[in-house]
Backbone:
């Protein structure tokens, strides 16, 4: 589940982090992968079931 | 539980792999930030400290309330201080450190303290249970049933508070049924009578012994009733004072002030001096004589009939100073 707010984005029920870069984060979900493009992307919280990202998100590919 | 966090730095080539492992370990990471090529910085909750140490991160600092609490108990002296403080706090909460009585009557306050001492309640005694407070309440109520309308007793922290209000009927006042007579000659200045049949008016001239306030009234059925009498009647009264001094013994320049001072000393307890006039000042038979006339405003009420002729208005008080 994706929750996009003004300055952050929450990815709930994720399975695995696949890629972590400043301009791209790829997360594996049950249903497939989510690719998030942007600038200065950072993980502000990483828990067992949730990732919260901050940064300038330009594109989300499901 | 977001009480405190540790800040770590870690060097790794595969951050993604490490984060996935951390996920498996059920560790929460906050503010993951790349600070160099293969160097990352993040916060973890203090209570997950042991789990994250498996990854050999470099500890930088800690923040949060839990961190400061841990600081207190890390040092032996601080730990002893903390335990002592907690123990003192616990002890102080078990004992009465102050007894506060909130009431208007000082005598009742003293009596309340006496009753409390019967129950061995004083500063330093153990706090009482709700049931014991109820017993004290009942005892105080019994003891002061005539004097107290409202009573509340409770413990606020280590302070035992007793609040009460005096009973309206607690003011004991004896009624007087005696007539009020004039104790001096004078002109009525003010009438302040709350009970009784007033027989005079303001500006009336009254003589010593005149009846001012009567204790009887006659009803429309011609029945005579005796009523209580209470009040004050103020009147202008007149007094003349004379003081003499041997002219040979005193410097004439100081004589007037000396004589005036002597006369003023003679004036007894009166309500108010309305006016003070010099009637005569001179040398008579080698004596310096000062004659002053005073108008006083004083309460002339006297209970019972007045017969003696002292203190009449117009009496000349004559004093010769040797």
Residues:
């Amino acid at each position: 589940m994706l929750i996009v707010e003004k300055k952050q984005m929450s990815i709930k029920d994720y399975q695995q982090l696949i890629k972590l870069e400043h301009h791209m984060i790829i997360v594996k979900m049950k249903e497939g992968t989510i690719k998030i493009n942007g600038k200065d992307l950072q993980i502000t919280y990483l828990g067992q079931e949730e990732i919260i990202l901050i940064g300038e998100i330009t594109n989300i590919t499901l | 539980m977001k009480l405190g966090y540790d800040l770590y730095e870690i060097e790794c080539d595969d951050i993604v792999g490490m984060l996935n492992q951390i996920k498996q370990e059920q560790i929460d990471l906050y503010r993951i930030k790349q600070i160099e090529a293969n160097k990352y910085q993040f916060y973890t909750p203090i209570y997950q400290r042991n789990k994250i140490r498996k990854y050999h991160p470099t500890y930088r600092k800690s923040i949060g309330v839990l961190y400061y609490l841990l600081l207190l108990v890390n040092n032996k002296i601080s730990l002893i201080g903390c335990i002592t403080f907690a123990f003192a706090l616990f002890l102080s909460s078990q004992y009465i450190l102050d007894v506060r009585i909130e009431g208007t009557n000082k005598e009742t306050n003293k009596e309340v303290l006496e009753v409390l001492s019967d129950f061995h309640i004083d500063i330093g005694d153990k706090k009482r249970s709700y049931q014991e407070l109820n017993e004290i309440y009942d005892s105080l109520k019994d003891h002061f049933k005539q004097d107290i309308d409202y009573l509340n007793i409770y413990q606020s922290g280590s302070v035992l508070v007793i609040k009460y209000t005096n009973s309206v009927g607690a003011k004991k006042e004896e009624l007087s049924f005696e007539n009020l007579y004039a104790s001096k000659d004078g002109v009525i200045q003010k009438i302040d009578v709350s009970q009784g049949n007033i027989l005079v008016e303001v500006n009336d001239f009254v003589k010593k012994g005149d009846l001012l306030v009567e204790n009887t009234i006659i009803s429309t059925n011609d029945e005579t009733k005796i009523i209580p009498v209470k009040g004050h009647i103020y009147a202008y009264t007149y007094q003349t004072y004379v003081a003499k001094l041997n002219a040979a013994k005193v410097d004439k320049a100081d004589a007037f002030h000396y004589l005036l001072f002597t006369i003023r000393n003679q004036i007894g307890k009166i309500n108010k001096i309305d006016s003070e006039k010099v009637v005569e000042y001179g040398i008579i038979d080698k004596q310096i004589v000062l004659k002053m006339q005073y108008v006083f405003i004083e309460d002339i009420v006297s209970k019972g009939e007045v017969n003696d002729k002292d203190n009449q208005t117009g009496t000349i008080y004559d004093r010769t100073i040797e």
